[in-house]
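Deliverable D2.4 — example input (structure tokens):
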């Protein structure tokens, strides 16, 4: 499971750094490296671009896992260089960027957009979203296939009227999630699940921002 990211446009990054002359760059050795959005190669490429744009890159590093609290130790180790910077550009997921920001008093900007949590499968380098972490899991009733993620419309009570020959109307190259669910339930001998109405999702199941104390839910019931 990886956090899937893509690089922001260089124009967006320049806009963030518009008033900063000196920049420190941080990459991530885990998810961003696998996505080729924030590994060593991409960090050095960003360094070159910023220098060509007139910025001074006072230093850079690729932290093994940027969203880990050990990021604090990495920042302390590079404190002398970071102190010279006007800001920090983080080539990691939003979690990693926020982690860096929490341990630094420097303005911290994301160089990446965080897309989804996914896994690699099939074609090399192709990542597929598997979970939106919605807090209201329904796959017990859908044959282990998540309609919230798999269906382009997130429908919970069967396919829309636009499905055609088992394909999604939003993208004819993709299988209709509910066709996949039907076939899976048929294989499992659980097609009766398709006859049951399921209420709308509880979008307040997890408070935003999410924060759960382990055991607190059981104790409150």
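Example output (designed residues):
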């Amino acid at each position: 499971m990886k956090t899937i990211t893509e690089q922001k446009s260089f124009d967006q990054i320049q806009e963030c750094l518009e008033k900063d002359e000196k920049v420190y760059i941080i990459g991530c050795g885990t998810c961003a490296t696998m996505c080729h959005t924030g590994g060593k190669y991409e960090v050095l490429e960003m360094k070159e671009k910023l220098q060509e744009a007139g910025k001074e890159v006072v230093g850079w590093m690729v932290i093994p896992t940027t969203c880990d609290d050990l990021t604090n130790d990495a920042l302390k180790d590079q404190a002398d260089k970071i102190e010279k910077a006007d800001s920090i550009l983080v080539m990691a997921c939003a979690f990693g960027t926020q982690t860096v920001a929490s341990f630094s008093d420097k303005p911290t900007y994301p160089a990446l957009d965080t897309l989804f949590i996914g896994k690699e499968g099939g074609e090399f380098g192709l990542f597929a979203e598997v979970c939106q972490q919605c807090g209201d899991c329904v796959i017990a009733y859908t044959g282990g296939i998540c309609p919230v993620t798999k269906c382009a419309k997130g429908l919970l009570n069967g396919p829309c009227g636009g499905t055609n020959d088992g394909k999604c109307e939003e993208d004819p190259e993709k299988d209709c999630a509910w066709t996949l669910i039907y076939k899976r339930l048929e294989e499992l001998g659980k097609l009766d699940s398709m006859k049951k109405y399921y209420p709308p999702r509880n979008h307040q199941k997890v408070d935003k921002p999410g924060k759960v104390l382990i055991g607190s839910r059981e104790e409150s019931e």
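The first strand starts at residue 2 and ends at 7.
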